[in-house]
Design a protein that fits this description.
The protein has two domains: about 210 residues, 3-Layer(bba) Sandwich (FAD/NAD(P)-binding domain); about 110 residues, FAD/NAD(P)-binding domain (3-Layer(bba) Sandwich). The protein is about 25% helix and about 25% strand. Strands 1, 2, 3, 4, 5, 6 and 19 form a seven-stranded mixed β-sheet that branches. A five-stranded parallel β-sheet has the order 8-15-9-10-11. Strands 12-13-14 form a three-stranded antiparallel β-sheet, with no helix packed on it. α2 packs parallel to α3 and α2 packs parallel to α8.
Length: about 350
Amino acid sequence: MSTVQTLADGLAADVPARPHYDVVVVGGGAAGHGGALALTRARRSVLVVDSGRPRNAPAGHVHSYLTQEGVAPLQLLATGRDEVSRYGGEFVRGSVVAAERLADGRFRLVLDGGAAVEADRLLVTTGLVDELPSVPGLAERWGREVLHCPYCHGWEVRDQAIGILATGPMAVHQALMWRQWSDDVTLFLHTGPEPSEEEYEQLAARGIAVVEGRVTSVQVTDDRLSGVVLESGHVIARQALVVAPRFTARAAFLAGLGLEASEQEVNGVVIGTRVAADPTGATAVPGVWVAGNVANVTEQVIGAAAAGVRAAGAVNADLTAQETRLAVQRHRRDGLAGAEPGRGAPAAL
């Protein structure tokens, strides 16, 4: 049984324990757990819907996460689940396949198993899908020796023979960046654009080799990446290969609420899609917040957790404001508004 399956099996419930929650958190990664923890500590009823198959499961460790440096991704989430449960948070295994707003303003979510649940607010932390370049063998090595983030994996491949697979205009930038971790970096032009004269000069100045021709596969020896195979049949020895996936937000189910993902750019280059939101994670649809990679494809794990907490604070404040409005309405309806302005009801004797 794989570690990914183990995490999924830990989410024992397939059906929500109750029909309605203050907040349903869709997605159980770092952002989802961070948000759920803050909300449960705010005494909100919270359900986390999670498939148990996180994006970073193939990676061996999480890095640059203060006090959790080097922790296994699944262990981080298992610990987070225990912490959320300690404050009354609930979990259900599954994925949300449809969402709609009801006449009373609540949200109704349908899970892939057919169960449904309602919520006053939604916090969407579903993350993204890494769409890898179409080269045989990349997917099998993804998160191991096929990488994309130097801050996540650079230290682990320091001083090794690193290749950069060019598939877009950011390839030279990647090559120059990864040069910080190794002096043996090769840029494979593959399907990427020809570097400009200035870029060629930068590459040469940093000692980065440039190889023309398409890459057709990767070579693996003893369960480790050992080379990059060119269309010519030539194999260039490499121990790690850096790629530029397209990062696609997991947000299809939000279409029922009128929310769709939009393109996210870096330096004018489209690198993927995300659900647009304000700094608190509030989307264009009232009552729906997003956090983590579904809102920002470049967010790292620690940033995603922080974004979840920040969004949770906004969600709780919004619920508090609504509850106050309703309380004032009841106060007036019950005739208590006759008290002098600024004064509450008389204390009971």
